[in-house]
Amino acid sequence: MEGGPDIIDMTEDADYRLVTQVQKLDRPYLLKPGETIHGITREHVRLPDNICGWLEGRSRFARLGLMIHVTSGFVAPGVSNRQVLEMANVAGRPLAIHAGTRICQLVLQRTEGHAVYRGRFSQQERL
Predict the structure, then answer these.
(1) Which residues are identified as catalytic?
(2) Helix (H) or strand (E) run with residue 61 in it
(3) What is the pTM of this model?
(4) What are the extents of the domains in the chain?
(5) For the structural domain made of 25-110, what CATH number should be given?
(6) How far apart are CA 79 and CA 31, in angstroms?
């Protein structure tokens, strides 16, 4: 983000909101090569306490250079929110991201025991 700090300290106090600019996607977003952005799903995901999930990109878009989650594809048991996508362009050319395009999928997995996610992002409804 332009105008943000030159260096971001990776500590427990690091806050993405200090370097994030929120924009509506009312027209295609041009994701430049090497650029990473956050997006958020329109769908609200609610999982029971014995099911977790993994956000995965769709191969048709991965083959064009779009990565959907860079590091945090895990969806915790008991979650009830919208999912943030860490979209990165690893292609050699810009990618036009269009709102409403099905660019990812959620793979579900049964867990042993029961758990409910109550962490820092448990109430996330927008970036």
Answers:
(1) 86
(2) helix 59-62
(3) 0.76
(4) 25-110
(5) 2.70.40.10
(6) 29
